[in-house]
Amino acid sequence: MPERSTLDWDLLIHVDDANTARNDLERSEATGFTSLTIPGFACRLPDGTILDIIASDEGWIARALAEPTRDLDDQPVIRLPWLILMKLKSGRVQDLADVSRMLAWADDPMLAEIRAAIGQFLPDAMEDLQSLLDLGRLERGRGH
Hints:
Layout: E1 8-14, H1 18-27, E2 31-35, E3 40-44, E4 50-56, H2 61-66, E5 69-70, E6 76-77, H3 80-90, H4 93-105, H5 108-121, H6 126-140
Parallel strand pairs: 1-4
Antiparallel strand pairs: 2-3, 3-4, 5-6
């Protein structure tokens, strides 16, 4: 999908690593630690970058962290099925809009992977997933 710039970096970690991450960030002179509305915390790095640490113990986190893809800057990012699952679970309006746009750009093999992940870990969202796909395709001009 077309890139959507934000003012922060999001980092997904397993909840068991949250204390270590916070301690490491404090040692690196990060400041302004605050809780997020989801499990995790935010802080400001010495260069001014805002970092959101999302800490989860969901059953799919270990798999998502073990099989990253790479962005254009060669940084590891979670694959689309896990990103969509995470955004669906958040339920925030902006996240749902993101899901709709991401689904509209996904090819059929990726859509199959996304459906499998949602079906396994968030089966009650399958109908919503299809609605978001339909909306995204309409927005992109592809229809059904």
